[in-house]
């Protein structure tokens, strides 16, 4: 964060804190770098003199202090001290070293997909704690996010408000920053945690592209685009674009929750850091005949052999009983005539009817399938013989001993 020397009109001591540098100035007041007697550094915000007499601004300042006191977690700067009754109300929070997200992008360039997802995951996890305290930030934007060595921090709860409150301070005037406001804020509807999700989506789009997803223009133009036009996410990495588009949905109910957003961004950050492609469910393929269990192969074989058999006295290939009866029946032509490969006799027996196909049952390997019953009998005999041989060897060894 850029620091500037104190100006002549700046105070040197506020409360028990000595001021050293200017950290910045905003619509509500000036932020100073100060320290207490123990050397603890703080960021101390003092309300502007011309606003100190304005009851509305005093109320907003009191809300910021109240919000900072209720929030527990590492996502925000810890409140150290405050004085709301002073001629110029002030409060001090733990100093967070590091540039804002806005300055980081402007000075060092765009964040990669992995960096954007990591920052977004930490911020969305922090917003969980903010919302659990019953607070909605309402002005989440790149300049209100500090990138400290210990992770990003959310600052400036000056317009934070309880969940469900309206966003209008005056008729037709929305509080917040155009380009990062949610549509419900522009309309003056009640704010919810989904309001911060929208602003976080716009902020992450800025981190990845260096621009607001609603472009540039006057406040009126920007607010119109937020309400009526779709966000422009050109340049956003493919891994992040679908999730950010969901965050920027016009309907608050269609946006993901902060918890869902945190989990999803953590997955994207881990995958992008390792350079892994997005995981997709494997395509299910049908197993071949050889890969099927023996029971399934037997059932499929039975199903294939029974297809096409006549169920009554109709035409078709002869059954096994009919073939056996024909083989046993005496032939009138003396010696038994030879059979053709198709199964029809060439002698006194009548040939198969024309148009009738003889089914040759084979497996996928081209061999005739084994009879399951015969296969079981062979396995049983093999096991019995093996046991008898083993027993004989044992008895012989015992007799020798």
What do you see in this structure?
- This protein is an alpha+beta fold and 401 residues long.
- Among the domains are: 95 residues, Phosphorylase Kinase, domain 1, CATH 3.30.200.20; 176 residues, Transferase(Phosphotransferase), domain 1, CATH 1.10.510.10.
- The chain is 38% helix and 13% strand.
- The protein has 11 helices and 12 strands.
- It has a 6-stranded antiparallel sheet with strand order 1-2-3-4-6-5, covered by helices on one side.
- Strand 3 and strand 4 form a beta hairpin.
- The N and C termini lie far apart (93 Å).
- About 17% of the residues have low confidence.
Residue-averaged pLDDT = 78
CATH topology name of the domain at 99-274: Transferase(Phosphotransferase), domain 1
Estimate the helix proportion, in percent. Answer: 25-40%
What is the end-to-end distance? 93 Å
Write down the CATH class of the domain at 99-274: Mainly Alpha
CATH homology group of the domain at 99-274: Transferase(Phosphotransferase) domain 1
Largest sheet: 6 strands, antiparallel
Q: Architecture of the domain at 99-274, according to CATH? A: Orthogonal Bundle
């Amino acid at each position: 964060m850029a620091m500037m020397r104190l100006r002549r009109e700046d105070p040197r001591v506020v409360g028990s804190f000595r001021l050293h540098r200017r950290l910045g100035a905003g619509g509500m007041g000036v932020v100073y770098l100060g320290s207490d007697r123990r050397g603890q550094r703080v960021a101390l915000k003092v309300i502007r003199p011309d606003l100190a007499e304005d009851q509305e601004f005093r109320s907003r300042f009191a809300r910021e202090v109240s919000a900072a006191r209720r929030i527990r977690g590492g996502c925000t700067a810890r409140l150290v001290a405050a004085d709301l009754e002073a001629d110029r109300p002030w409060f001090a929070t733990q100093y967070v070293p590091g540039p804002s997200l806005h300055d980081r992008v402007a000075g060092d360039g765009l964040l990669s997909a992995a960096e954007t997802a990591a920052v977004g995951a930490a911020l969305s996890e922090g917003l969980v704690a903010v919302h659990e305290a019953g607070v909605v930030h309402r002005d989440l934007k790149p300049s209100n996010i500090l990138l400290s060595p210990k992770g990003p921090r959310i600052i400036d709860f000056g317009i934070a408000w309880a969940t469900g409150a309206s966003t209008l301070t005056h008729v037709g005037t929305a509080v917040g920053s155009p380009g990062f406001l949610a549509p419900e804020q522009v309309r003056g509807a009640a704010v919810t945690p989904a309001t911060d999700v929208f602003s976080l989506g716009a902020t992450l789009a800025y981190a990845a592209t260096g621009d607001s997803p609603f472009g540039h223009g006057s406040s009126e133009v920007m607010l119109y685009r937020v309400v009526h036009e779709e966000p422009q996410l050109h340049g956003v990495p493919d891994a992040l674009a679908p999730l950010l588009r969901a965050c920027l949905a016009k309907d608050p109910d269609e946006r993901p929750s902060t918890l869902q957003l945190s989990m999803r961004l953590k997955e994207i950050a881990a995958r992008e850091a390792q350079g892994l492609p997005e995981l997709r469910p494997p395509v299910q393929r049908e197993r071949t005949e050889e890969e099927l269990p023996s029971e399934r192969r037997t059932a499929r074989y039975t199903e294939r052999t029974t297809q096409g058999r006549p169920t009554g006295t109709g035409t078709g290939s002869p059954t096994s009983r009919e073939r056996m009866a024909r083989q046993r029946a005496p032939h009138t032509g003396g010696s038994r005539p030879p059979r053709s490969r198709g199964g029809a006799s060439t002698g006194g027996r009548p040939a198969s009817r024309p148009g009738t196909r003889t089914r040759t049952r084979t497996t996928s390997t081209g061999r005739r399938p084994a009879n399951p019953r015969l296969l079981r009998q062979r396995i049983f005999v093999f096991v019995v013989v093996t046991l008898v041989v083993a027993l004989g060897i044992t008895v012989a060894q015992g007799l020798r001993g």
